[in-house]
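User: Sequence recovery, please. Input:
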């Protein structure tokens, strides 16, 4: 038993235990001899076994201290990861258009033709027609009113996920009010800016504030809104370019006189 205690507590080498155990059994009749021999063994063995134990304990203490005191390290996303994720989101959004019903997709794309054709025709001819620009403003006002009234048709049925409350019905009337204000402006540029605001408000309601539409419809709304906004801004830009050219030609004609 004593060699086992020595081996566990004092980490005594096996040869030393073999030599000391018989001595203790044969000559250990005296208690004082046993105690003195035990103290001698402790003095001889402890310097050998204490330093590795302390070294191991100090290493573990250092690791624990480093574990508890080290600041949290957050992995930063590399530019390659963000670049690879962005096309993935755009690709999934475009793929969701395949889930849209064909009539909804084709009618929505066909409804964008009047928006795109007016600035495109004026840019090809190189002239600005105020009548065509005002026609685009009128068509935009009708489209914004349609987008606002569409929310009523979605919220009024009994089994609809959207309730006919103030949030759904009252917010649907705000874009048509902006569209009405756009028709009151004599300047086409101001009317186009007002319609851009109305389209932005309607898109915010349909995508963020009232998110009960299917995903394909939201993607279709985003694409359609971008095309309408760019067409209106293109018409306003053509009007500005036409005015600048007219003022320059007028100044040249006055300078020749």
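Assistant: Recovered sequence (257 residues):
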């Amino acid at each position: 038993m004593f060699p086992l205690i020595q081996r566990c507590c004092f980490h005594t080498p096996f040869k030393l235990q073999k030599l000391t155990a018989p001595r203790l059994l044969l000559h250990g009749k005296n208690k004082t001899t046993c105690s003195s021999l035990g103290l001698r063994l402790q003095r001889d063995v402890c310097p050998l076994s204490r330093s590795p134990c302390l070294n191991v304990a100090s290493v573990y203490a250092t690791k624990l201290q480093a574990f508890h005191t080290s600041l949290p390290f957050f992995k930063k996303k590399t530019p390659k990861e963000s670049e690879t994720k962005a096309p993935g989101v755009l690709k999934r959004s475009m793929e969701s258009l395949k889930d849209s019903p064909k009539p909804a997709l084709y009618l929505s794309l066909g409804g964008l033709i009047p928006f795109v054709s007016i600035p495109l025709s004026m840019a090809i001819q190189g002239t600005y027609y105020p009548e065509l620009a005002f026609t685009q403003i009128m068509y935009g006002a009708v489209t914004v009113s349609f987008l606002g009234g569409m929310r009523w048709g979605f919220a009024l049925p009994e089994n609809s996920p959207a309730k006919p409350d103030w949030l759904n019905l009252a917010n649907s009337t705000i874009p048509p009010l902006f569209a009405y204000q756009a028709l009151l402006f004599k300047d086409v540029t101001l009317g186009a800016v007002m319609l851009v605001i109305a389209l932005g408000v309607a898109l915010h309601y349909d995508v963020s504030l009232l998110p009960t539409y299917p995903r394909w419809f939201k993607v279709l709304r985003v694409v359609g809104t971008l095309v309408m906004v760019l067409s209106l801004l293109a018409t306003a830009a053509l009007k500005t370019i036409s005015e600048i050219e007219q003022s320059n030609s007028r100044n040249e004609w006055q300078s020749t006189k």
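Confidence is low (pLDDT under 50) at residues 11-35, 44-54, 63-75, 79-84.
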